[in-house]
């Protein structure tokens, strides 16, 4: 049986999972393949990892990743430390030394993907990154291979399990955001500092990768619009629910003839939309291709073993020679793809949910609707509940399709009305 020697850098949650799979004596890889990836070396700054994992004597352990990079017997480097530095140095050096690379580093790929791909092509090597988006969901392979005959028109979905868990908790159990976040942290679904997840940054990194693979273009990450869930009010979830909508944090990519929409934000979906029933830590991604139509991939978007499964799948591709052939044949990985402008959020057109806190007196709705009408924003439906003790009432409006720039101008004008109290809330809608 042929082997392909692997060097593993980073023994966190995912790295530990990868090591477990590769060191498994009754591995399904042995049953299925004539050429398998074999763990040859592990690098981690914590020397206790060796004992914790019970690393066998034939697997070299080091606290210095350079020892793996300089080992000529190792053919593939798996980078699982995350972040930009020293991850970028590790990948660049590995490529220069003639090694293929497997990574789950969505931040690095989002910020420096073109540079990394250019380096890999320069040295005739490959970079594989299935585990960077969607955990165990094979979304990269689907976009790259399964839908190769399609012109991809849109890719959108739930790509962060932490935020989906929090929003599910708020929706199902009627708990406020802070309580749902605390529960997610207690369960291990959210970090002590949850900023990357709850502010939509993690989803934006993944969206940049999906857009690159789906549309075959280079992406300037800093132009992706990103908005998280920390400001979501529980009452808006329930008013929207009354109107037939479910709130999710979506990563949305849409391609037109000359621009691309790339945006991450809380989004209302009709209850009957498949994504509305994706709950807890699960992820789901919808792809619309001109030939295949609408497809949705669903599964665990994070976690040790689902993500490790995706890493090992990439290692098998490298071991069998498929990764190199695909990487070098596809223009997507040339790093020289067309750089298409990303649409400004003010230019997008969608429907909107609006919630005003207003004084309960005649003429309020007509005043607000008049201003909306001046900016070509028409009303689809309205709900109004009883007055609160403060004398204000929540006025909820769903609009028809409107341009965001016009909506922002209208809301600024409405804010100056004497009948408006407190902050006006709005959410975007995807039908």
Describe this structure in words.
The protein folds into three domains: 2-135 and 306-333, NAD(P)-binding Rossmann-like Domain (Rossmann fold); 139-301, Dihydrodipicolinate Reductase, domain 2; 346-429, Alpha-Beta Plaits, CATH 3.30.70.260. 37% of the residues lie in helices and 26% in strands. The chain has helices at 13-23, 28-32, 49-53, 66-69, 87-96, 106-122, 139-146, 161-173, 177-186, 195-198, 201-215, 234-242, 304-319, 322-329, 364-374, 404-415, and strands at 2-9, 35-43, 60-62, 76-79, 100-103, 127-128, 152-158, 225-226, 245-255, 260-270, 282-289, 293-300, 349-359, 379-384, 392-399, 402-403, 420-429. The strands form two sheets. Strands 7, 8, 9, 10, 11, 12, 13, 14, 15, 16 and 17 form an eleven-stranded mixed sheet that branches. Strands 3-2-1-4-5-6 form a six-stranded parallel sheet, sandwiched between helices.
**Residues in β-strands, percent:** 25-35%
Calculate the mean pLDDT score and round it: 93
Q: Stretches where pLDDT falls below 50 for ≥5 residues? A: none
Pairing-aware structural class of the strands and helices? alpha/beta
Estimated helix fraction: 25-40%
Q: What's the CATH topology label of the largest domain?
A: Dihydrodipicolinate Reductase, domain 2
Q: How many separate domains?
A: 3
CATH architecture of the largest domain: 2-Layer Sandwich
